[in-house]
Design a protein that fits this description.
The protein contains 7 helices and 7 strands. It is of the alpha/beta class. The protein has one domain (26-202): 3-Layer(aba) Sandwich (Rossmann fold), CATH 3.40.50.150. Strands 3-2-1-4-5-7-6 form a 7-stranded mixed beta sheet, sandwiched between helices.
């Protein structure tokens, strides 16, 4: 029974990997546990990612695709009582888990909204930072998503992408750079290597 269940999980994971590469599908809620594996923390430490993004107390921040909320809790804590985190999640079940995680951690300066970044209402020029951690490749119209996030940033605001090799949706830095430059964003620093990196882009102060 256990072997059969394990085989089913492996088969499901492999099927998702194939499908996600072909159709840019988000990680399904049934595989949400993968996001919480400690191995992920060894390869891509949360604290280092948040350091590279540059979150500061008092900022208003948009997180796209929080999944189970593994990054949302430490991000909200960095923003402090005067800051605010808005997490936009496409899948209702993932959004539910993220809300439960935030509540269990006693986080009061964050909220989880449900919606697609390419169509959900986004307040114009409302955020200091918007970030996506291994999420960009899950979005079918990546150029539209980047343009909408750019418009949601305050002038001078930062749009940040984190990618890691091994993720089925991995996006090469050169591709991310090309899309962001086409959207009128300026490179604003990068941490890591092609194996795992965080790349920031700034909305021009006059844009």
């Amino acid at each position: 029974m256990v072997v059969a269940a394990a085989a089913g999980l492996v088969a499901g994971a492999l099927a998702w990997r194939y499908a996600s590469r072909r159709w840019s599908l988000p990680c399904p809620a049934m595989l949400g546990w993968v996001l919480d594996l400690q191995f992920r923390e060894l390869v891509l430490p949360t604290s280092r990612v948040l350091d590279c993004i540059g979150l500061q107390p008092g900022q208003r921040v948009l997180e796209v695709g929080p999944g189970t909320g593994y990054m949302s809790v430490p991000a909200a804590r960095r923003l402090g009582e005067t800051g605010r985190l808005v997490a936009l999640e496409l899948q209702p079940e993932m959004a539910r888990r993220a809300r439960e995680r935030l509540a269990a951690a006693g986080i009061t300066n964050a909220e989880v909204r449900e919606g697609d970044v390419t169509s959900a209402p986004l307040e114009p020029q409302a955020y200091d930072v918007a970030f996506l951690v291994t999420v960009l490749g899950e979005i079918r119209d990546r150029d539209l998503a980047i343009a909408r996030l750019r418009d949601a940033l305050k002038p001078g605001g930062i749009l940040s992408f984190t990618e890691i090799v091994g993720d089925p949706h991995y996006q090469r830095y050169d591709d991310v750079l090309r899309r962001c430059l086409a959207a009128g964003l300026e490179p604003a620093g990068r941490c890591g290597s092609w194996l795992a990196y965080t790349a920031n882009f700034r909305r021009p102060a006059a844009g």
